[in-house]
């Protein structure tokens, strides 16, 4: 994990809180560039601040939640919103990431996303479960402040919920990945990475802006990225495609042309959701299998070395316990009894 020595210095906690707030606000302004009006309410197909908030609280700790609240306040301050709605929005968008982190930690979530169970936990607890709080509270306040009619509650609620969940599914994994040192190392497959980037540039825009509905052409790129570059390859492809699809949907172009706003939102969020789930879960399965294979190969090598020492009549050298082993099972652990 990336260390943050600033947190131990005087004023370091405040500096990191401000950094979280700035990142949250910047992500919110980017998300508002692609907004749609559904039944009189403005919603965003992807709301990146939710992903930033969940990742920040997982990486830094829940004690930095004021940064999320300040960032949410800055967003509502830049918009023309009533006081009641602004307060409720701040509460909902702070409480949802906190609940997401609590649920993930309860499930034994690991931020390196090397296990399928981590991917499933992020999907069901971090995205689909916790984001029910922010979407429900936000839409209830819209109705309470007469900013939308009550009969459109479920349509707007579904669009809001999926937008918040998409922010967690697309943004959080990448931020968690780059918080680890291995996420920042250059890949040895530079030429293949360049080929994947070129293929994405050549395939994604025509697939999104074509009137023939060619969005399915993106999935081979997602699979390629997951097989060869694991999480970073698949999620970068998914994020870039989702952003471009959101821009096309906002303009009513390509595969989203000739549709009503509700139909555009349903098609866009269905496409983004299935693509994000495919990228996240497929890469998690591949990463887990490779990690298991490496562990088995290392165990076999150590077993061969022990057998060689025993054959030569020497005592085998002590083996350090693996980093992720149970501390109670380490050889240097002494029974207090």
TrEMBL record:
MASE1 domain boundaries: 17-290
Pfam family membership, one: MASE1
Keyword Transmembrane part of the UniProt annotation: yes
Transmembrane feature ranges: 12-32, 83-104, 124-144, 156-181, 193-219, 231-250
Membrane topology: Multi-pass membrane protein
Entry's Gene Ontology cellular component terms: plasma membrane
Location within or outside the cell: Cell membrane
Keywords: Cell membrane, Membrane, Transmembrane, Transmembrane helix
Chain segments carrying region Disordered: 311-337
Matches recorded under InterPro entries: MASE1
Annotated Basic and acidic residues bias: 327-337
Protein name (Swiss-Prot/TrEMBL): MASE1 domain-containing protein
Organism field: Streptomyces bauhiniae
Top-level taxonomy: Bacteria, Bacillati, Actinomycetota, Actinomycetes, Kitasatosporales
């Amino acid at each position: 994990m990336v260390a943050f020595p600033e947190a131990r210095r005087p004023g370091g906690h405040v500096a990191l809180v401000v950094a979280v707030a700035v990142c949250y606000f910047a992500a919110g302004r980017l998300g508002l560039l692609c907004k749609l009006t559904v039944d009189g309410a403005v919603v965003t197909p992807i709301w990146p601040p939710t992903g930033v908030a969940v990742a920040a609280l997982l990486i830094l700790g829940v004690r930095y939640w004021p940064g999320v609240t300040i960032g949410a306040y800055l967003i509502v301050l830049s918009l023309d919103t009533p006081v009641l709605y602004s307060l409720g929005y701040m509460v909902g968008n702070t409480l949802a990431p906190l609940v997401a982190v609590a649920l993930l930690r309860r499930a034994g979530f690991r931020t390196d996303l090397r296990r399928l169970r981590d991917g499933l936990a992020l999907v069901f607890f971090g995205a689909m479960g916790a984001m029910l709080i922010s979407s429900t509270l936000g839409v209830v306040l819209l109705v309470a402040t007469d900013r939308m009619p009550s009969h459109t509650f479920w349509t707007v609620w579904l669009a809001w919920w999926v937008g918040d969940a998409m922010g967690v599914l697309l943004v959080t994994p990448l931020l968690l990945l780059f918080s680890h040192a291995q996420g920042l190392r250059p890949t040895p497959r530079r030429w293949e990475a360049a080929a994947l980037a070129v293929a994405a540039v050549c395939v994604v825009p025509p697939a999104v802006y074509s009137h023939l509905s060619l969005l399915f052409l993106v999935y081979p790129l997602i699979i390629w990225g997951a097989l060869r570059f694991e999480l970073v390859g698949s999620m970068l492809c998914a994020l870039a495609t989702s952003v471009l699809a959101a821009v096309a949907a906002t303009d009513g172009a390509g595969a989203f042309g000739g549709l009503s706003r509700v139909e555009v939102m349903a098609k866009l969020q269905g496409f983004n959701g299935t693509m994000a789930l495919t990228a996240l879960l497929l890469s998690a399965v591949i990463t887990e299998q490779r990690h298991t294979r490496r562990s088995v190969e290392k165990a076999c090598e150590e077993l061969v070395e022990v057998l060689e020492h025993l054959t030569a009549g020497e005592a085998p050298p002590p083996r350090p316990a693996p980093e992720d082993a149970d501390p109670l099972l380490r050889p240097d652990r002494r029974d207090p009894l």
